[in-house]
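Question:
When you can, review this sequence-structure pair and walk me through the tokens.
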Amino acid sequence: MRCFDRAKIYVKAGDGGNGVVAFRREKHVPFGGPSGGNGGNGGNIFIEADSAMNSLLPFRRNVHFRAGRGDHGQGKGRAGALGTDCVVKVPPGTVIREALGGQGLIGNGDILLELTTPGQRELLLPGGRGGRGNSSFKTGRNKAPQLAENGEEGAEMWAELELKLVADVGIVGVPNAGKSTLLSAISAARPVIANYPFTTLLPNLGVVPLSFEASMVVADLPGLLEGAHQGIGLGHEFLRHTERCSVLVHVVDGTSLQAVQEYEAVRLELELFNPALAYKPFVVAYNKMDIPEAAEQWLTFKETLKSQGVDAFSMSAATKEGTMDVIVAAYHLLQSQKNMSFDGGSGEVGLGDGLEVGQVVKKMRDAPIEQFTVTCDKHTRTWQVDGAGLQRFTQMTNWEYFEAVRRFQHVLQASGVNQALRDQGVREGDTVVVGQMEFNWKDSDDIANLGDWKRGPRGSKVWPH
């Protein structure tokens, strides 16, 4: 039995459509001018919280998600259609991170989005921009441009999904303390109950009705052992679910000879896993009062916790005696937490609200061409020019047209790449790599020195094979 609360998916935004080189050709209209349309923008990748989902099981086999590509531009100034967006549906409570060892698009392991509300939709990756047609390059000096751009490639990444249960109250405690029995006594949930430790292998959720309009969601988590924050037992796998709970209920096994020590051990494991858990409001429920041994130790346990400033409740989950008092106390703490959040006292700000991932990705990809770095391999005399703006410009350049090659040379000169290479000691014949373009360096700025070329129909640039 496995709990599918972790998944790894590949997402890719749609590529932009290519621009086109075309000219208006109509009867009695000489010199119609350029009419090549722009390509359509690629589709976006959205993440949406779907209340009908309760696990990440659908991502066990469905791993790859790709948005549609934008259509290419056409003649008569017609732009290409937009690419189809891709919506990845996840259960509420899902956290999205960039996978470790990926491309580092935003930052390896950083939290990108957190979806907690059903129906919440966030932009993860924006689609690529459509390439411009030759009508966009028309100027007063160049009235018949013969160049167009390729569509921008869509962003891509491997993303890690992590599901944290969205519950109001979390039940924690050592194995076989009666957590599942308590959940079955106060709700309609029917978890597996048996007289041996680690009966609960997966988190269980139950809705507890308190009145006609009042209810709360309670989560029963697997038992915790000493060292759970280091991965011992099943606790570490599900400790993260307690981070979303507003209130915790500590169920203590009354038949244990070390009930106080077990309670303190659970508190310590929560604090070691996440120090913020130590400050969450909690209720202590001393269970199994229907057993004489537990009833005999109740007063000692109560006085010990009272000396620490903690009020404990006694109950018997098997007979449901005292369970309502525990639930009412947890509900009152929950309401006080919600009131504090409404007043702005301790409300948590969702990561998706504070960080617009799609805008960050777009801003990084739209970096100025003047921002670049130059590195050199002295052994092979290879120069590498890196920069997000140059990478995008090189990728979108359509090398089939000679004017695009001339434009590329002009951009290298205007952005300071040529001067930076000269300042660092580039020599005649050295290999220079700019994005996807590789050429041999010539000391002259003449366009013919980029390589052997010949002009074909419509000014196309044909590279020798």
Remarks:
- The CA atoms of residues 55 and 261 lie 35 Å apart.
- The chain has a mean pLDDT of 81.
- The two ends are 58 Å apart (CA to CA).
